[in-house]
Amino acid sequence: xxxxxxxxxxxxxxxxxxxxxxxxxxxxxxxxxxxxxxxxxxxxxxxxxxxxxxxxxxxxxxxxxxxxxxxxxxxxxxxxxxxxxxxxxxxxxxxxxxxxxxxxxxxxxxxxxxxxxxxxxxxxxxxxxxxxxxxxxxxxxxxxxxxxxxxxxxxxxxxxxxxxxxxxxxxxxxxxxxxxxxxxxxxxxxxxxxxxxxxxx
Length: 201
Known about the structure:
The chain is an alpha+beta fold. It has three domains: 1-74; 75-159, L1 transposable element, RRM domain (Alpha-Beta Plaits, 2-Layer Sandwich), CATH 3.30.70.1820; 160-200, no CATH class. Helix content is 50%, strand content 18%. It contains five helices and seven strands, in the order H-H-E-H-E-E-H-E-H-E-E-E. The protein has helices at 5-24, 26-73, 91-101, 136-143, 162-175; strands spanning 77-81, 111-116, 129-133, 155-158, 180-183, 186-191, 194-199. The protein has a four-stranded antiparallel beta sheet with strand order 2-3-1-4. The longest helix is centred in the first third of the chain and has 48 residues, at 26-73. The protein is rod-shaped, with a radius of gyration of 36 Å. The N and C termini lie far apart (85 Å). Residues 45-72 form a coiled coil. Keywords: Coiled coil.
């Protein structure tokens, strides 16, 4: 049987009264407010996390960029290890003799500047020598001839940035020193007759 107009009016009045009662109920209002605040907090947290992730990615990118630029600035440099250190030494003459004695043709004209690295705190340790060549060609010739130092106390290594040097040491601990090398700042490793690029430019 269909509802009469009075019954419909009565039902509407009851619904309206119930809704009004709900909105006048502190517990109900607190629940609504809590849910709204939770939604807002979730949204804000998501935005903050997204912003933090973006900054982290940009920071990694910038650090990689700075490292690449710094490594490029060292492209004409090498480090020479194992040269005995003497008081009042003529370091350029000592270095040139060390190269020429193993058949690597280096002259004073090919060297821009050179110096020992670090402070002489322990006389029992020989400080390495950093050498900057006038041209990349001269530096490349020396690096590709480094095997000529085999059997001597001397060795040479490219002048790597701190992050690359640390990475090189970590790789050497895994596969061994003889299985790792660098060229123009790029770190290579060999494992089971396969060559891997560990760090590119």
